[in-house]
Design brief:
Strand order of the largest sheet: 3-4-2-1-5-6-7-13
Radius of gyration: 19 Å
CATH class of the largest domain: Alpha Beta
Number of strands: 13
Shape: elongated
Helix content: 25-40%
Order of helices and strands: EHEEEEHEHEHEHEEEEHEH
Length: about 260
């Protein structure tokens, strides 16, 4: 049985995690961290990690500052951390990597297993088609999302660009540029509206054909499921910086 501490337990993802974990027999929520102390059912909630009377794998769905605080607490107390917060700066990411020298840190901008399979497929398609096909990414999210493009769109772009040897330049807006598309452009477009949970398309556009890789999230539950799998994967691991590629290794022949 893996014990789990949820940072951001009052939020939508925190509540979804509580519901998902309650239906499982291989893990349990032992505490929460959020802005106000209280209870979620029979789960005690604290305002600071220093108040925790117990330990468990931390799943963080909070903020960049909260993610860094979780990683630093984990490093100081040898507690594994699954960091799911988005919008982290380079300095924040560096803090996570520093913490991973002392405790296992799992980091992904998107916890959906399906999205990460899409990324692996995009890598393979880039190997085969990238030299002759133009590549475009389109991401769609609800109207409350703050960042654009999404962290997942950038994850996809970075994976493609790494596979292509870094030859692509990201283009986010062509409205002020009146010229033909350059072969080294990688276009990233954002749509915001309604309650779209998250949709991502990768288009490989050739002279006479288009290959589209697409993922659509039907609910936030897919992100909670991925975070739980990451927490179970991380329990008992040695210190290090882990990603979805590590989790998928052995599941996909291409990883």
């Amino acid at each position: 049985m893996t014990d789990i501490v949820i940072q951001g337990i009052y939020g939508r993802m925190g509540r979804t995690l509580v519901e998902k974990i309650a239906a499982r027999t291989d893990c349990r929520v032992v505490a929460g961290i959020d802005r106000q102390a209280g209870m979620v059912g029979d789960i005690p909630v604290y305002t600071d990690f220093s108040q925790l009377p117990c330990q468990g794998v931390i799943i963080d769905f909070s903020s960049p500052a909260g993610a860094v605080a979780a990683a630093q607490y984990g490093a100081a107390h040898s507690v594994p951390c699954v960091i799911c917060s988005t919008g982290l700066s380079k300095e924040d990411e560096a803090a996570l990597e520093a913490a991973s020298a002392r405790t296992p840190i799992f980091r992904s901008a998107n916890m959906s297993l399906g999205v990460n399979v899409l990324i692996e497929l995009a890598r393979q398609a880039t190997q085969v088609l990238g030299g002759e096909f133009d590549i475009e990414i389109v991401e769609k999210h609800h109207h409350n999302k703050l960042d654009a493009p999404s962290g997942t769109a950038l994850m996809i772009a970075d994976a493609i660009n790494a596979e292509a040897g870094g030859k692509y330049e990201y283009v986010f807006d062509r409205s002020q540029v009146r010229r033909k598309r350059d072969a080294k452009e990688l276009g990233i477009s954002s749509v915001r509206g309604g309650g779209i949970v998250g949709e991502h398309e990768v288009l490989f556009c050739g002279p006479d054909e288009v290959l589209t890789l697409q993922h659509s999230a039907g609910s936030r539950g897919v992100f909670a499921d991925g975070a739980i799998q990451a927490a179970l994967y991380l329990a008992g691991r040695k210190p290090g910086y882990y990603t979805m590629t590590d989790l998928l290794r052995g599941k996909l022949p291409c990883v």
